[in-house]
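Lab notebook page, bench 4
Experiment: in silico fold of construct C2
Operator: M.H.
Input chain length: 704 residues
Purpose: comparison with the prior construct
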Amino acid sequence: MTDTGSELVATVGTRIGKLIRSKVLSAMFVFCATVTIAATTSTFTTLLNFEETNGAYPGPLILGKDGNFYGISGSGGANGYGSIFKITPQGKLTSFCSLSNCLDGRSPDGVLAQGSDGSLYGITTFGGSVNNSGGNIGDGTVFKLAPDGTLTTVYNFCSHSLQGFCIDGLWPGAGLIQASDGNFYGTTNGNGNEGFGTVFTMTPQGVLDTLYVFCSLPNCADGRGPVSLIRQGSDGNFYGSTQYGGNGTSPGDGTIFKITPKGGLTTLYSFCSLPDCADDKQPLSGLIQASDGDFYGTTTGGVGGFGTVFKITPQGTLTTLYNFCSQTNCTDGEGPFGPLLQASDGNFYGTTSAGGTALYGTIFRMTASGVVTTLQNFDVTNGSIPSSQLVQGTNGVFYGTTYLGGSNADGTVFSLSLGLFNFPALSEQADYFAENKSDYSVWRPSTGTWHIVDAGGKTKTVPWGAATDIPVIGDFDGDRRSDIALFRPSTGTWWIVGSRSGATISQVWGEQGDIPVPGDYDGDGKTDYAVFRPSTGTWWILESSTGQVMSQTWGEKGDIPVPGDYDGDGKTDYAVFRPSTGAWWIVQSSTGMAVAKQWGASGDEPVPGDYDGDGKTDVAIWRPSTGTWWIVPSSTGTTVATAWGGKGDVPVPRDYDGDGKTDIAVWRPSTGTWWILPSSSPGTRVAKVWGASTDIPINKPVGQ
């Protein structure tokens, strides 16, 4: 049997060992290191220093549905075999589970996945009840941690062996993703019937199916050693990389592949296809699909062998965007092991595990054109070897881990605030140009045409819809750009032009008399199809993350739906405004608790929005009779009253200046004029003529 396990251990151990040795040797010649931060307002905070009893060597974080972060430590914990932990954005740690013995797994690794059932799913590289591969370390597991803290081993790898091969794979190491079909997908680094790794799918109940075995082609032209997380693309297929194999001019330096849900694999690119491996080699980090539809990733090769950032189209055209160690003494970093993150500002953020002014790694920002800026340097005291993907919280702040360093040398959890804002799909900005601010947009029923203009004068005109349709705002494909979308009451059909692909999408969801209430009810960054049925007071949601149907009776005939994220957990809450009593009735998605708020009177129009920029929807009304906005900011609870607009105006509160706060705004049909009070410039008034008297402003509140 081919010993790919020792290859895995040697690869990881050698790389980390080389990093540590190079840092120690370099540190002997450095008497004073100055931390250099880019010229931008930033705050770096070490939230947690791990020490052996609560875990050591932490892996990547994920943002949970409750707004907290979850991750694993590869070692330590109460029993020394690793732990699963939760940490709040403020740094309060809860150790959910410490692995107790090798039978429930050992050395948890990779990225956790929070399933649609609320449980955490993950892998251990070693341990488990099966040890068919030889030795005494076990062959790895998939585990499930229920919300009540119950740990269950869902699958033991190498449960099926043939002639010395674990045909279902062994030693998984990248983590899991839950795909749109509700099943989990992942990779193993070892075995399969060829011995060089697999791609598998597994039901939540633990039924595993091997989709592909690597090195099935001569000379491993299809790759071997998939050590990074696979991702599901917008086309429904899965994309990933192998560390070795391929058919480049120096065979064996890795591949990028696409695999269908049925297991059909296509090698999109073989690294080291250019002389001197100028096109990079050995991708370790995994891919992300950006808002432009292309995939982005990093390698450990490139010019000088210090690592690169690349992008690759779904068709396989690869472009190297940046070579690390391009600056003197590698002050720009080297060794980007973790995946990139595309943040709310459209830029890419990542880490290098070495280099920087203090030699122990960096946090960087990269534009889409490949301009890199170092934002933070690690110096051991604040952590070292950051090798995992960053996560952006609902507050816009970045969170991550370092593998080593900190006060106990066992790793850290940190945060980095750059003053960015995170716009989840539930607070749609009517942002059709991906500029993180709302555009001026109207729909003309007489012609079924959308007319859109941004603050800089860029325009878009799209014929889409019929006179009786209802225009809706939504990012249904998750590319941070609003899609042209409408709801047709006569058939209950949603018609969408996807901004990422330009493809037409239709979905029957609703019936005559329903009110469309699109939002991100499952917190996956994509808008869900949703309607409110006044006749029964029922909300009907089709979750984009799982395809599951959710229903909630909340409201009664005559109520106005006012969906929003009132508890700041990144998910849309069910909420209604009752004009007869001026009461708001809200179901918080984070707790399931019902909240009632008396605010408004008959004749008022609800205008919910995040007026204070704290990541929570504020209760607010506009009184047409006086043109007064009455707002209760969730951060202070203090009433704010502002006179803006008059009878006949249409309230259109959105974030027009891109500062992360909802602006008070009205559209005046009689003149087609937008009147804005930008929150970033108190005392400033903005007027924009856009639209005709019979147009419908798309920017009006959802559900109205």
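Observations: The chain is about 5% helix and 35% strand. The CA atoms of residues 670 and 693 lie 5 Å apart.
Next step: discuss at group meeting.
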